[in-house]
């Protein structure tokens, strides 16, 4: 998935509209229970909006076409380069799509709590769908407070990428397993020019930049977003340890030198990406990066591993997110919309084919174990993480990604030296997040 999350907010939307022959009535799930599925031989049109483009758009289109195996008279129209804002505008304007697939999970709490996405549990119960086929972390980021309003479409799992030649040149025999080792590896693989400017950064600590986002880093420090009472809990030793690790690296490079270096780096999803161009020795990123590297930097010698953790016993912890699919409020044909969602969520052949096409992680246990899944040594790191019980999903709140942005903004100020008291600053961010959630009424 490019990001796929790729950077952080990616999306797919699918709109379903029936022709005159189509079965099923429009409306919301809650109005009269789950809507009926179309008949196997009935003709209807599925209009799919997505934020995919290029190669990935073509692969998603293939996955949508596989829906015709069950509904041969379905017509599918796939439009790329759509986003969540357009879906929201469609709902407000009374012309929503029938299936919305969002590339990121940041807004799932808002979608579920506001009714933007309709409840899917009635369909799950009616069709006796076994949600146990989906790993726990993935299930957690497709619902909010017991309201399942979305299903997954593949996932992203994050780990460590490292340049094998750079580590070897620095006398390092393998990737770091702890954040203390990461700090040491970063310093030893950093290179400076004669004038002191950075030529190669062992590990770039700037946040937010590339996949350096608070939700991606937090699990490796055991940092939780909320306490037992449900309130924001950033003013904790774990969050403080994470940010102090970040600041120690920033201070090693020098903030101004680091900013000058970062300003000259390429875009996250372009061939000029800093890792592709051997400008950074290590980074955190998702499994999808393997496809970009194969395509854009085929001669680069690299390896993958679980991202280092603050405590050795936490090794193997990982962050996961992914694409989600829901039925928007006011969808004209929720019955057919659910059939499409169910197909893409649970049909093993469709899941494996799409995972192979865009190099994302399958979200069902059967697809993860399918022998047709293409798994090389570097991709296996992420498959193994996905099979573990140490994955942590995106924090879900009714305020969309506002809490994530708040922490990212704070980290930016902290790394620049503008925060005099770390814990007091985090406590203030807690207060503002709790206040915003309270104002949401959710």
Topology:
Elements: E1 15-17, H1 29-32, E2 44-49, H2 54-65, E3 74-79, H3 84-92, E4 100-102, H4 108-114, H5 121-126, H6 136-140, E5 143-144, E6 147-148, E7 151-163, H7 164-169, H8 179-189, E8 191-192, E9 198-203, H9 214-217, H10 237-253, H11 255-263, E10 280-286, H12 289-296, E11 302-305, E12 318-326, H13 334-346, H14 348-358, H15 365-368, H16 377-387, E13 391-392, H17 402-415, H18 422-440
Parallel strand pairs: 2-3, 9-10, 12-13
Antiparallel strand pairs: 1-2, 4-12, 5-6, 7-10, 7-11, 7-12, 8-9
Pfam families: SBP_bac_8 (PF13416)
Family: Belongs to the bacterial solute-binding protein 1 family.
Keywords: Signal, Transport
Give a summary of the structure in a few sentences:
InterPro entries: Bact_solute-bd_prot1, SBP. The chain is α+β, with helices and mostly antiparallel strands.
Q: What do you see in this structure?
A:
The chain is an alpha+beta fold and 442 residues long. The protein folds into two domains: 15-156 and 321-392, 3-Layer(aba) Sandwich (D-Maltodextrin-Binding Protein, domain 2), CATH 3.40.190.10; 157-319, D-Maltodextrin-Binding Protein, domain 2 (3-Layer(aba) Sandwich). It is built from 18 helices and 13 strands. The protein has helices at residues 29-32, 54-65, 84-92, 108-114, 121-126, 136-140, 164-169, 179-189, 214-217, 237-253, 255-263, 289-296, 334-346, 348-358, 365-368, 377-387, 402-415, 422-440, and strands at residues 15-17, 44-49, 74-79, 100-102, 143-144, 147-148, 151-163, 191-192, 198-203, 280-286, 302-305, 318-326, 391-392. The strands form three sheets. Strands 4, 7, 8, 9, 10, 11, 12 and 13 form an eight-stranded mixed beta sheet that branches. Strands 1-2-3 form a three-stranded mixed beta sheet, with helices on one face. Helix 2 runs antiparallel to helix 14 and helix 10 (237-253) packs across helix 11 (255-263). The relative contact order is 0.19.
